[in-house]
User: What shape does this take?
Amino acid sequence: MPDQSERAAELRGLLNRAAHAYYVLDQPILEDPVYDRLYQELVQLESAEPRLRSSDSPTQRVGGAPAEGFTSVDHRIGLLSLDNAFTRGDLLAWHERLLKVLDRPGDTQLPLVGELKIDGNALALSYRNGVLERAATRGDGTRGEEITANVRTISSIPLRLQIDNPPEWVEVRGEAFIPDATFAVINAEREQRGEALFANPRNACAGTLRQLDPKVVAARRLDFFAYTLHLPVDAQPPSQWAALEWLNTAGFRVNPNRELCADLAAIQSFCDHWEQGRHDLPYATDGVVVKLNDLLLQDEAGFTQKAPRWAIALKYPAEEAPTRLLRVGAQVGRTGAVTPVAEFEAVALAGTSVSRATLHNADRIAELDLHLGDTIVVRKAGEIIPEVVRVLPELRPSDATPVQLPQHCPECGSSLVREGDEAATRCVNSSCPAILRGGLRHWVSKGALDVDGLGSKLIEQLVDRGLVGSLADLYRLDAALLASLDRMGDKSATNLVEALEASKKQPWHRQLYGLGIRHIGEVIAKALAAEFFSIDSLAAAALEAPEQIAELHGIGPEISASLGQWLHNPANNQLLQDLRGVGLSLEASAAEQEAASQAGANANGMLQGKTLVLTGTLPNLSRSDAKALIEAAGGKVIGSVSKKTDYLVAGEAAGSKLTKAESLGVTVLSEVDLTAMLEP
Ligand code: IVH
Assistant: This one.
C-alpha cells in the first residue's frame, strides 16, 4: 500500500489530468462520481496532513479557465453554484439552518419550490429591450465565454421575448442539455466517422456549445430549460414560482416537472417521486433543486461565499465509485458455471454499502487487466447487481500482482473445465454441493415449483448436514427433523412439509422448468410442455428425433442438444425416477392437456410477418425465452437492425443496436412492451 504522500501525488496527477480532459478537451477520462470521491480522498489526506497540500493540487484551483477561441465576458450578475445535500438528513439540516437565518425556528409551513436538477450546462442569457443580445457559458461564475451565435441555434430559446413592453434588460439562466435520444444519434454518427465518443449527454452538450461553427451546433439539436429570472427590481415577480410562470409566458421552456410545495413534507415526497421517476425522463437529471419560494425571504436569507442559503441541490446517490480491490473469490452457480467475484473495500453505492461485485468470467478479468490492490471503479445502477466497470491503472501499487482465476472448484475442489469457446469455466462434478444448492434453489423458486419457506439459508443447512442430496430428498423430509434445524420451529416445519406436498400439484411445465436443464427457461419449458405432455414423450423425441424438437418455434438445435445431453446422463435418469417415486407426476394433467390443445388452436399471430431484433439484457426473459415468445407469436428474430426491422427489443446495457434503431426510427420496445403486446 503506498504511503500518504505517494498516494496524494498519484491522486493529484490523475485528478489534474481528468480536469484538463473534462474542461479543455471535452473528453472526460473519469466518471463524475468517481472524480468526486477521489477528490474527497485528496481533500481528506490534505487536511489531515497540510504539508501534502501543494500548489498544483486540484483542491487549490477555483473554477475553470475559458477555452481559447471564444471571447470571455463578465456576467452582469454572477452565476452561483448550489450547496449539495446527499441525504435526507442533509436536506433537513439545510431547512433548519434556513429557518434559523430567517429567525423562524420550527416553522414547517414555508412554501418551497421543487425543481429537477437538469444535468446539462448553465447558460446566462441577456435580453435588451426584449431581444437576445448575448449568451454566455457559466465559466467560473464571474466570467464566462460568449457563445451567442451558438445559442441562437437552440430552438427552445426565444430570440425575442414574447411579451409586450418587456423591461429594458432581462437576465435568464437555465440549463442547456442534449436529450438522451439525440445523444445516441450524435454518438452513432461519431462512431461511423471514427471519432471519439462523448462520455455522456452533458459532455456532448459542453462540447457542442464550444463549437466554433454554429452550423454544427444547429445540427446537434440542443435544448434548454429556463429556471432563473433577473429583472429590474420594480418588475421582478414576487416568488420563484411566479418567475417560472413569467419565463414560460415569455417563450421559454420551463421544466413541467416542478412543484410548489406548501411545506417540507411535500418537498420530501417530490424528492422521493423523482428518485425513481427520473429514469423515465428523456433527458438526464442528477437530483432535485429545492428553492425558497418567496423572493423577499430569499433576499433575507442571502448567500454564503459561493451559494445561496435559500436553495439546495439534493443529489441522488452515486451509482459509481472508486474503491480498492482486496481479493477475487468465486461463486459456483446451478449449472456449475464459476463466476469470479471481486471483493473490495466497502463503498456506498446507490444508497447501500457494497463490497462484492461480479467479474463475469476469465475474459472479463483479462480485459480489465485486473491486479490485486488495484483501484477499481464499481457500479450499481438501480436494481442491477454491482459490477466492476474498469481499473484506474495510474493508481496501481508497484507490487500489484495480476489476478489469477481459480483452477479448482472453491466448493468441492474438483478441477474446473472450460469447454470449446465458452467464456465460462465450469465445475462438472454433479455432486458438487454448490451445484446441488443452486439446483434446489431453482426447483423451489417462483417460476418453478414455488415452494414457500425454503430459503437459501435453510437449503445450505440441509445440504451441509447431508439431509438432502437431490431434489427428490426434499420430499422425504419430515416435520420433526425440520423443526430441529436452526431458526426453524414446529409451525414453520409443518408449513414447509405442507408446501412441499402441495408443490407436487404444480403444472407439468413448471416441473420441467424446475429441473434446471441448461437453456430451458420458463418460456421454452412452456412451449415444450404444450407439445409433449410428459417427460417420457419429451425424452423419446429428444433421443430419437431431436430435429422434431429443434423445429418447434423458438427452440432450435442448441436447446434440443442440451435436452438430449441432460437426458443421456444416468444421474439425471435416476433423478427422474426418484422424483416419480416421491410423487411428482412429470406429466400434464388432463386439464392441462385440454388447455394446451385449446391454446394451440387459437395461437395468436400478434407478430405475424414482423422482424424483431433483441439487444441488451432483459430484466426477466433470457434471450432464448424472448426469442421463443416472439416466434410463437409468428415473429422472426434476426441479428442486426436495418430499416426493415419492425421492432428492437432493448434491455439493460443496450449498445450500438439501440443507437442505430433510434437513428433509423425503428420502434424500440422494452420487455414490458413486448409482453404486453403478446397478451391475448
Ligand atoms: S438554480 C443560485 N435550478 O446545477 C441558483 N440550477 O449545482 C443556482 N442546475 O450551476 C442555480 N438544474 O447549472 C438551478 N433547476 C435548476 C437547475 C440548476 C440544473 C445546475 C446549474 C447550477 C448547478 C448547481
